[in-house]
Design goal:
Protein YhfA; 2 domains; three-stranded mixed sheet; N-terminal domain of TfIIb; OsmC/Ohr_fam; about 40% strand; three-stranded antiparallel sheet
Length: about 140
């Protein structure tokens, strides 16, 4: 896996991923940025949320659950001083489907958290990570 980051303008940067996709990032105005794109740490959080949601959907599909939607909302706290690492992260999942078994949803989230999601396992080295979820019929 590889990624190239290029300084664009001011405090804006463009990342080009190994798969050929471009992602813009920018700093906060107080840091010289123009607030044109997400902050790098927001990208870390978003990537972690996508990593775990991907796992949950895949595990539920392989468990033959009739899943129709999955949303993961991450709320994080960071250290007050540098390095401002994440110190707490709550993952809240809303999983929608027909006849979903709550215990299967819980198992999928647990497997992602403990075995499959490299990003959340890595962030768990500095942050207290918690998970909540709800199952919606539909």
């Amino acid at each position: 896996m590889e990624c190239t980051i290029r300084w664009h303008d001011g405090m804006s940067f463009i990342a080009e991923t190994g798969s050929g996709h471009l992602v813009a990032m920018d700093g906060a105005p107080e840091a010289g940025g123009r607030n044109l794109a997400p902050r790098p740490m927001e990208m870390v959080l978003a990537g972690t949320g996508a990593c775990t949601a991907f796992d949950v959907v895949l595990i539920l599909k392989r468990s033959r659950q009739d899943i129709t939607d999955c949303e993961a909302r991450l709320i994080a706290e960071r250290a007050e001083s540098d390095p401002k690492v994440f110190t707490k992260i709550n993952f809240h999942f809303v999983v929608t489907g027909r006849g979903l078994k709550p215990e299967t949803v819980e198992r999928a989230i647990k497997l992602s958290a403990e075995k499959y999601c490299s990003a959340s396992i890595m962030l768990g080295k500095t942050a207290e990570i918690t998970h909540t979820w709800e199952v919606v019929e539909g």
